[in-house]
Amino acid sequence: MEKRENYLYYGDNIDILRNKIDKESVDLCYIDPPFNSKRNYNQIYNNIGKEDKAQTIAFVDTWEWDEAAIKGFNEIQSGSFPVKAADLIISLQKILGNGSLLAYLTSLTIRINEIHKVLKKTGSFFIHCDPAASHYIKLICDSVFCSQGGDFLNEIIWHYKRYTAKSGRFQRLHDVIFWYSKGINYTFNDIREGYGEKSGKKDSHYKQDVEGKWYRWQKRKGKEPYKIYLSEGRRVGDVWEIPIINASARERLGYPTQKPIELLKKIIKFASNENDTVLDCYCGCGTTIDAAEELKRKWIGVDITYNSICLIEYRMMSTYNNDVSYKLFGIPRDIESAKALAERTDSTRKEFEKWAILTFTNNRAMINEKKGSDGGIDGKARIHDKDGWKDVLFSVKSGNYTIDMVRAFRDSINVNNAICGFMIVMEKPTKGMIQISKELGSYKGTYVKEIPKMQFIMVQEIIDKTAEYPFLEFTMEVIKKAEKKEIEEEFEFDDD
Ligand SMILES: C[S@@+](CC[C@H](N)C(=O)[O-])C[C@H]1O[C@@H](n2cnc3c(N)ncnc32)[C@H](O)[C@@H]1O
Where in the chain are the domains? Predict the structure, then answer.
């Protein structure tokens, strides 16, 4: 069977939408952008002990009226955007002032405008919103889609149940998903849901025909009445009751805003066909692309954080083994692109550190998000030996590094009582540096086999996949045990 062409991009979606995705090439785009919730979402890394519940920032959902926002705002006014969108943003500025909400809406307007361009004329757009900003987002979508021949089709309410916590208002139990089409023609597969046998028969409007099939008459003003058979099923409404991912759900990946695959499958089934191209350019842990793959659609996923890309790779591998093929862009595949990532900006350097640690450990570590030097510790993993939890430390050096930095990391291993530390480096260590690492000796635990307390790992070895992380199998066991115990009470409480 011929494999479908799929693409996964690590980067800012604005660059990918503008430079990598062909205009009018996408059949369905679903996005679930950050909600302007003014908080950071943390991803739980399951292999970490209880006391310092391992978290690392999965993505930052805070917005500022900064240079980027001003640049975006001016761009919208530059004449290259739909007039309605430009007018809308100016009006919103009058109402909201220059603040975080306007920055958020500006960033969305720019991206929605690019999404509109990559959609085919028959394409559909679904945008998932929190009720906090959905009214503004609908205005933006109207200004981009409806002003260019598109249409607003539905406001879908995704209704779910959660445990309750005390609050001074009604419990929030739904999200909003807007559906827009780019043109008059679009795909809508009118898949019916079955009526329960009983419901129809109990309904006195239904009668049986000579063959015993249940039907009722449908009357419309000015039209001939026509028969509707019970077996045709019920039209699907715009309120969808789909459970959120609970603590013990098998699909749960520990990604804070992971959506249920059921939700995405429903959207994709109804609004696209096999072999169509589905895009999610805020793809998080890859729910959309997983659903698209299962439903035999081609897919394009984009995310700006390495954590997401890493999880998606893990998800695709564990769900489809080697039966899924996709091209991955933006992740270093050779030493030149690793260097480029490390050298570009402060934030890409941080992403380089994440990439190095998470690739080396196969996503079994947490990243130190603190800025500045922290004894050279850029990441940490925990191993459960017979006598308790033990730290494993990671330090990443993307360029030149000094013997003092090696000493500082050695001291961190000692001070933190870590069982070992890995210094991931681009340049080979000098003899003096190797000497310092050797002086630390080795660690041998009850379950942990003897390992040097400090080792250098070359970035090249990570790229070549020859760097061996000694706790790979070991931590998988720990995850299984810890998962059950620790995740149980997480998240299900209402947070508003
Ligand atoms: C709410 S989450 C999406 C969750 C997803 N629906 C799922 O089920 O996993 C939003 C995602 O958008 C990503 N993101 C935020 N800004 C982005 C940008 N400019 N380009 C690409 N991805 C971005 C974040 O990293 C985050 O993973």
Answer: 7-189+240-329, 197-232, 335-486
